[in-house]
Model the fold of this input.
Amino acid sequence: EAGVVQSPRYKIIEKKQPVAFWCNPISGHNTLYWYLQNLGQGPELLIRYENEEAVDDSQLPKDRFSAERLKGVDSTLKIQPAELGDSAVYLCASSFSGNTEAFFGQGTRLTVV
Amino acid sequence: AQSVTQPDIHITVSEGASLELRCNYSYGATPYLFWYVQSPGQGLQLLLKYFSGDTLVQGIKGFEAEFKRSQSSFNLRKPSVHWSDAAEYFCAVGVNTGNQFYFGTGTSLTVIP
Done:
């Protein structure tokens, strides 16, 4: 069984440019998470989906970040425009709803120059 | 508010020595507790989890952790460390039936020959 798949693995962009990350969760997992991980820090939740509904987006900087999970399966996280401080690893995770274990993808390492 | 504290930023142990990584949490109810490991450039892999019952839980790769309610702790242990255990270790607490996860800042483990 495939795990959580994220792409791209690495992305380098200039500041003020847009960028998008894609996540395909484990089949059947209806909860999907996007986390931000700064260097030397633990993951911090950006947004959590239950199926196609964003049930917790309180930590998502909505002026520049957006996310969607249109069919309740894969998801896209977008930053527009990117800032230097957005350089970090963006992790996607998924779980069964009500299950207490999340499975993580390998992450996308974003560098903004 | 819930929080997770990992007081040791970095630990160095000799191969074959025992290991204990500390984790303290703050949460009003009984939490779900997790330890994840992250190798460089990789996502997070679950080592073990505690939901209820026996306070000593066994995980993969020879790791175990003990939940101590009186100390609000969930320390990770391994009797004999292998060089391949060098990685970043994250403690996490799951709340609200486990669909929300809060991570500590991590402990970086170096294993010397």
